[in-house]
């Protein structure tokens, strides 16, 4: 019966242009995932409380989504990526770092870090590690095996341990134009006929011919199943 239920929901998602290889059995009763069309998620670890993933984003198998709240549209996330690793998983200023101190005792420990926020059009390379409380700006690139310990500006390329800005993808004027355009809110069919290989020409094209914003359906997933929650 459980096997039938799992296969039913996988087919249900595929009919809606979605892919989720992760079993619904991994979801705790309190966990909620909301995704837009075109999202593809491999077999990943799910430690988040509530997560929203934007249209066309894909996440390869082997990644871990620990303490993350939002992943934007058109993101590319490689295998083995860890998002939201707790930087203060164990207390450093207590007598011990071991969890016995707050397991079945009157004491409690909370690292208190905020979840990760990932913008739109972000590329995260294989086995990158992003600590909790980090904001990854729209258009950023995280190199493979980078360890991200602080916020990443929009359209920055970062690499290394700890990750540092190597360069920016575009000049400041083009970056400002792309952010202002909010191109990720436009219909993909219309985007595909624009000069995406030339940012300046692209910005001119949408400035001369404003496009309508797309309104995607949102699918909510939890341990009980899947449902459409908005249009």
Automatic annotation (TrEMBL):
Record PROSITE patterns: HEXAPEP_TRANSFERASES
CDD domains, sorted: LbH_XAT (cd03349)
GO terms assigned for molecular function: acyltransferase activity
Record bears the keyword Acyltransferase: yes
Nucleotide-binding listed as a keyword: no
Keywords attached to this entry: Acyltransferase, Transferase
Coiled-coil parts of chain: none
InterPro entries: Hexapep_transf_CS, Trans_hexapeptide_repeat, Trimer_LpxA-like_sf
Cross-referenced SUPFAM superfamilies: Trimeric LpxA-like enzymes
Name assigned to this protein: Acetyltransferase
